């Protein structure tokens, strides 16, 4: 017996111009994720207070799907632009973004595997190193300041897979929401002439060995395709995928640290340029026939300054101004050294450690070759990390030398200004050596000026994505010095050595490292996807236009009980309001493997309900035993919230057969191929026989059209027709409590407005959020 004991706990009016689109309750917390037509995402508590807001990503970009990570620590948001965003629920910070292939995202599902693999993975991987260096806040000069709160994904003990369905019929699987480990091309799997379109729903079973998928056909017909896809390699290699996912998470986190550190390095160098140019750019040369570096070189060689140069040094630059510039430039160089030593070198050391582990896994070919992990690609990534290390050491040496040049240059220029100003010269600065003169001449000739502008090119060339213009001598490059000192290195094969290129900049070496790391994991999704098979597939004709398929209500649920393992998919037969819904059951237990049953359930006149013709507005699985349905009379005067027993519904399901071509299903188990599945040739059941007096709730003054449910939190949100009003209900309340509060279930709107105004801002808090139906 299914009861509908519910009590209204709150009612909110939703202001603003953006319409409501998606609402999804957390299964573990009293939190609700909400999106609107403007592309914004809100997180609210059960009390409706706003936790944080995720702004829109661009004009015209819509939120197309939302899903919680199984532990409700991370929220995944999919957009019409094809971007995926993972958000930390506690802080609202974006922890990761990616774009699978540029196609709009149409469906999301994120589920855990049944088995815990944490202990087994510890035996597979080496112990972790010290914590990763925090990402540098490149917007600040102080390199010691880090981003507050390490925006890293919390680790998981269970292997969770984020499944992403796209508009072009592709399905991607991401371990931990980060590691791309599976790619399913549905058109290729189906072997059909028609190209499969948008994926509408993905429902994996407990061990991810099977996916139930609902997708459109691109043939311009109002048909959808129902299929089950077996992915045996994922089940067979769960431990291996878990280990690879952990490594991928560590590696991508370190790559992000390196990217942020390089941005800060670039900013520190630009700051040094700004400090120099702020004064040096004022120098007026002789009608373009000379430059500041040439005039300074003449001053150094002959000890004589021209009239313009003397005026510039004494009047514009001044000794105090030169001191300030020298201190600022020296500080910028010092910051660059700190970034290299504390962040880039440290992160790259750890990156090399994890890439070495990846090479070790790839050499276990009996376990990892089937996943597409190749030893030669992993070794290339390891060598690229070594080359980046060597280039980092080279840049450190160049910065050390440039600091010597700068100090010597500024000291000489300071003494020159004092002499020209007839000021006394401190004794410690009065003398200079021939080596100092060489330093200054070398600095002015190679590092000070380029194309008439002040540039510190000895360092700046390493921070551009182009070849070096001034290559360091092999006698001073750290890697070449090591190779010369250790003659035994020459006995190693070239494939085992780091291969830094003398002409490459630091940015070029890092770009090469990114490419090699990406190539190491690139073959895995296709290798896993190629082992997939399609045991069941059928077409289903719906009563709507082909351009209205996105308005079909779809709900899915995976049941993983010891004696009952199956996936359920329910969908309306037309754009809502509809006359009924289809229910499909895909068995995944060994005894009933690949057995699929289905039926169509219609709503007409119901004996236990108030008189009238009813249409279905929304539907959603409440838990493993109950399906919740929202009905509306044709006159739109009465709404009914109805709870149906899934056990009774599943008793009415009849087996259907998988066919490449069209077929129908009779009431018996014997099936004959004659036409595509539709309401007319599928078993039809009247829901009237399953409705009991205690299984529904009537709303006479509330046109309810959409709902959102959470069985774990025992709450429901029901929306009005215009989605400007939402009522929150406590579910599964005691009967006595429900009777006591029955008179208060429908509150007066004016009284509610007064309550909100007294509450000090709740009304304002609701104005910038939109509620929506569950996807």
Automatic annotation (TrEMBL):
Xref: Gene3D superfamilies: YVTN repeat-like/Quinoprotein amine dehydrogenase
A GO cellular-component term linked to this record: nuclear periphery
GO term, biological process aspect, one: cell division
Xref: PANTHER family: ANAPHASE PROMOTING COMPLEX SUBUNIT 4 APC4, ANAPHASE-PROMOTING COMPLEX SUBUNIT 4
Name of the featured protein: Anaphase promoting complex subunit 4
Organism whose genome encodes this protein: Daphnia magna
């Amino acid at each position: 017996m299914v009861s509908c004991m519910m009590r209204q706990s709150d009612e909110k009016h939703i202001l603003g111009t953006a319409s409501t689109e998606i609402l999804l309750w957390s299964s573990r917390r009293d939190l609700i994720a909400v999106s609107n037509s403007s592309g914004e995402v809100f997180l609210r508590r059960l009390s409706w207070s706003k936790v944080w807001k995720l702004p829109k990503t661009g004009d015209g970009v819509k939120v197309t799907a939302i899903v919680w990570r199984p532990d409700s620590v991370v929220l995944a948001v999919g957009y019409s632009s094809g971007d995926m965003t993972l958000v930390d629920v506690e802080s609202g910070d974006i922890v990761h973004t990616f774009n699978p292939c540029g196609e709009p995202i149409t469906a999301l599902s994120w589920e855990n595997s049944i088995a815990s693999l944490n202990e087994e993975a510890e035996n597979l991987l080496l112990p972790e190193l010290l914590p990763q260096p925090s990402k540098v806040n490149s917007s600040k000069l102080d390199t010691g300041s880090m981003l507050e709160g390490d925006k890293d994904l919390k680790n998981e003990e269970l292997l969770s897979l984020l499944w992403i369905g796209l508009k072009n019929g592709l399905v991607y699987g991401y371990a931990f929401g980060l590691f791309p480990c599976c790619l399913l091309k549905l058109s290729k799997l189906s072997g059909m002439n028609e190209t499969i379109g948008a994926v509408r729903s993905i429902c994996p079973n407990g061990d991810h060995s099977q996916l139930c998928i609902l997708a459109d056909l691109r043939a311009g017909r109002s048909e959808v395709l129902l299929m089950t896809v077996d992915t045996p390699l994922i089940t067979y290699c769960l431990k291996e995928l878990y280990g690879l996912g952990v490594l991928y998470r560590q590696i991508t986190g370190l790559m992000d640290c390196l990217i942020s550190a390089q941005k800060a390095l670039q900013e520190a160098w630009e700051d040094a340029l700004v400090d120099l140019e702020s004064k040096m750019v004022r120098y007026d040369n002789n009608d373009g026939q000379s430059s500041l570096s040439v005039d300074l070189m003449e001053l150094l060689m002959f000890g004589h300054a021209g009239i313009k140069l003397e005026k510039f040094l004494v009047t514009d630059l001044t000794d105090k101004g030169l001191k300030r510039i020298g201190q600022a430039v020296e500080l910028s160089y010092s910051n660059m050294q700190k970034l290299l030593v504390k962040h880039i070198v440290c992160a790259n050391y750890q990156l090399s450690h994890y890439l070495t582990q990846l090479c070790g896994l790839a050499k276990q070919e009996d376990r990892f070759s089937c996943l597409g992990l190749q030893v030669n690609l992993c070794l290339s990534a390891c060598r690229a990390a070594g080359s980046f290390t060597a280039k980092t050491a080279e840049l450190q040496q160049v910065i050390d030398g440039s600091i010597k040049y700068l100090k010597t240059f500024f000291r000489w220029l300071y003494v020159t200004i004092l002499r020209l100003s007839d000021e006394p010269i401190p004794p410690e600065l009065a003398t200079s050596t021939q080596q100092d003169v060489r330093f200054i001449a070398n600095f002015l000739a190679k590092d000070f000026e380029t194309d008439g502008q002040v540039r510190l090119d000895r360092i700046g060339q390493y921070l551009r994505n182009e070849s070096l213009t001034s290559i360091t001598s092999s006698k001073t490059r750290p890697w070449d010095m090591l190779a010369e000192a250790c003659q035994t290195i020459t006995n190693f094969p070239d494939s085992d050595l780091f291969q830094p290129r003398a002409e490459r900049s630091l940015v070029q070496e890092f770009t090469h490292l990114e490419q090699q790391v990406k190539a190491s994991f690139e073959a895995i999704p296709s290798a896993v996807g190629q082992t997939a098979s399609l045991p069941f597939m059928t077409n289903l004709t719906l009563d709507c236009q082909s351009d209205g398929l996105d308005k079909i209500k779809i709900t899915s649920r995976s049941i993983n009980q010891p004696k009952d393992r199956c996936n359920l998919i329910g969908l309306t037969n037309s754009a809502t309001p509809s006359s009924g819904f289809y229910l499909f059951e895909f068995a995944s237990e060994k005894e009933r493997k690949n057995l699929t049953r289905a039926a169509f359930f219609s709503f007409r006149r119901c004996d236990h309900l108030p008189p009238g013709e009813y249409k279905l507005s929304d539907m959603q699985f409440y838990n493993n035993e109950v399906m919740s349905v929202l009905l509306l009379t044709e006159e739109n005067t009465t709404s009914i919230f109805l709870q149906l027993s899934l056990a009774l519904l599943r008793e009415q399901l009849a087996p259907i057969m998988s066919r490449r071509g069209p077929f129908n299903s009779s009431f018996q188990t014997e099936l004959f191929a004659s036409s595509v599945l539709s309401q007319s040739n599928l078993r039809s059941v009247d829901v009237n026989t399953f409705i009991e007096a205690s299984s529904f709730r009537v709303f006479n003054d509330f046109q309810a059209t959409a709902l959102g449910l959470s069985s774990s939190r025992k709450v429901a949100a029901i929306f009005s027709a215009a989605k400007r009003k939402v009522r929150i209900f406590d579910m599964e309340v005691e009967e006595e409590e429900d009777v006591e509060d029955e008179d208060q279930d429908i509150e007066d709107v004016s009284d509610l407005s007064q309550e909100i105004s007294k509450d000090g801002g709740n009304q304002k808090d609701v104005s910038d959020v939109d509620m929506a139906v569950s996807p």
